[in-house]
Amino acid sequence: MTNTALITGASRGLGLALARSLAEAGWNLVLTARGAQELRQAADELGATAIPGDVTDPEHVARLAQAVPELDLLVNNASDLGVTPLPPLAGYPLEAFRVLLETNVTAPLALVQATLPALRAAGGAVVNITSDAATGAYEGWGGYGATKAALEQLSNVLSAEEPAVRVWWADPGEMNTRMLADAVGAEEASSAADPAKVAAALRDLVRSRPASGKVSLQ
Hints:
The protein is of the alpha/beta class. Helix content is 49%, strand content 14%. It is built from eight helices and seven strands; from the N terminus they run βαβαβαβαβαβαααβ. The chain has helices at 13-24, 36-46, 58-67, 94-122, 142-161, 178-184, 186-189, 195-208; strands at 4-8, 28-32, 49-50, 73-76, 125-129, 166-171, 213-216. Strands 3-2-1-4-5-6-7 form a seven-stranded parallel beta sheet, sandwiched between helices. Helix 5 links the parallel strand 5 and strand 6 (166-171). It is globular, with a radius of gyration of 16 Å. It starts with a strand and ends with a strand.
């Protein structure tokens, strides 16, 4: 039987690297991201299903859940950095912070809720991509880090409430991605880890199926 994974933020970065890694292992993939053209190119490359859209849109979440009546793995990878240049909390625009919470916290929970019946039936797994900014006091990263801290606690409680489903909240570390470049500049980002290496570690995690909990991918 072929395993099925739903990956958000799959048009670039870690999401695309993980999609490539799982495709090599024979997984059936449903991919989503806001960038429709990039997403469809990725799906064509991998023989996957592309469903472009915004994970903060309830109708889009419903479409994704309908597309995976059987689901072995949900990867909540889609994320928003927030305001750039990264502002201190004293001046963080509150409306922008509300949008950040909607993307990085509410949307992953909505997808979990929508796909839990299929995940329970399959004895599947949820991977929520988090960050060391969830626990580190890094100047400028307060808005983004607070959302990742909330996502970690949601994952922690979900793991206790859903014993039939594996739940991992995974810190990928710094990766050479567009998001990191937006935060720290392209030159500094270029020295970070290749997302493909992090994706390989994530695929190993899924294959080995350890107990639910927080994991580091580097």
